[in-house]
């Protein structure tokens, strides 16, 4: 079938990349909404009603699910549901670590308790990574990439009060695992060649611990997904420099 006028037909590799990006793009789109709402709170001097912020995020959360879920095959719907859990965990952490009027109210009733009726995302986030990496649950490359993205954007969960480097260790473990189990993803030139054009090469970059030279291209791919995907519209927020610095430091 011919491509529609004004549109290009996707080649096999492009189609595969699109499929592999579904969960990551969903996460990044919702996180962009989170950052936008954080900007609104800051602009209000911290007095924006917490319930109004939560409702806006819940509306965006459910609208996204309505658009995506019906198009996913059955086995990917479970992965999408877990991705949604990571989205909510990330959103709660953002507003629980923001100095504003609604902080205590948010702690009393986080989004996690509203959507999933649980209150342990700070632990569960890392426990689920452990389960996947240790073979206790099936490991999805897409889902692990979502966790990797959240870590690159600063999620710390149970380690936030401790100030330890454990989140960085988890990030390195995920990269190493994916490089060994899904080598196609490691081939950055096949998956996302334009990522190299958006990665600084003339400044020193901090390497993750225990990463071999062969794993670095995969990390570049992940960072490229974050930078060149839908999360690019974060240019509209006041937090762009902070987010990009974190992503660049991950390399």
Task: Explain the overall architecture.
The longest helix has 32 residues, at 12-43. Helix content is 63%, strand content 0%. The model is unreliable at 1-17 and 188-215 (pLDDT under 50). The protein is mainly alpha-helical and 251 residues long. The chain has one domain (12-249): Serine Threonine Protein Phosphatase 5, Tetratricopeptide repeat (Alpha Horseshoe), CATH 1.25.40.590.
Name the CATH superfamily assignment: Type IV / VI secretion system, DotU
Q: Which structural class matches the secondary elements?
A: mainly alpha
As for the CATH topology, it is: Serine Threonine Protein Phosphatase 5, Tetratricopeptide repeat
CATH architecture: Alpha Horseshoe
Q: What is the CATH class?
A: Mainly Alpha
Radius of gyration: 18 Å
Number of helices: 12
Contiguous low-pLDDT stretches (5 residues minimum) are 1-17, 188-215
One letter per element, helices H and strands E, the order comes to HHHHHHHHHHHH
Instruction: Report the strand count.
Output: 0
Shape: globular
> Number of folding domains?
1
InterPro entries: T4/T6SS_DotU, T4/T6SS_DotU_sf
Transmembrane segments: 215-235
Keywords: Membrane, Transmembrane, Transmembrane helix
Protein name: DotU family type IV/VI secretion system protein
Concise overview:
It contains 12 helices and no strands.
Question: Which key features would you list for this structure?
Answer:
disordered N terminus, mainly alpha, 251 residues, Serine Threonine Protein Phosphatase 5, Tetratricopeptide repeat, 12 helices, 63% helix
């Amino acid at each position: 079938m011919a491509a529609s006028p004004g549109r290009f037909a996707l080649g096999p590799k492009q189609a595969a990349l699109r499929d592999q990006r579904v969960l990551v793009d969903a996460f990044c789109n919702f996180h962009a909404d989170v950052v936008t709402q954080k900007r609104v709170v800051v602009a209000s001097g911290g007095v924006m009603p917490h319930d109004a912020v939560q409702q806006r995020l819940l509306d965006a959360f459910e609208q996204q699910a309505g658009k995506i879920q019906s198009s996913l095959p059955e086995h990917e719907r479970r992965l999408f549901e877990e991705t949604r859990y990571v989205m909510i965990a990330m959103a709660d952490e953002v507003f629980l670590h923001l100095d504003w009027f609604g902080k205590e109210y948010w702690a009393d009733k986080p989004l996690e308790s509203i959507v999933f009726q649980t209150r342990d995302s700070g632990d569960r986030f890392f426990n689920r990574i452990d389960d996947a990496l240790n073979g206790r649950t099936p490991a999805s490359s897409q889902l692990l990439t979502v966790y990797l993205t959240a870590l690159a954007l600063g999620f710390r969960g149970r380690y936030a009060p401790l100030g330890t480097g454990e989140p960085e260790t988890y990030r390195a473990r995920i990269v190493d695992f994916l490089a060994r189990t899904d080598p196609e993803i490691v081939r950055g030139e096949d998956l996302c060649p334009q990522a190299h054009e958006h990665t600084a090469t003339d400044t020193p970059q901090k390497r993750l611990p225990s990463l071999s030279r062969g794993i670095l291209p995969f990390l570049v791919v992940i960072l490229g997904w974050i930078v060149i995907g839908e999360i690019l519209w974060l240019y509209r927020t006041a937090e762009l420099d902070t987010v990009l610095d974190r992503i660049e430091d991950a390399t």
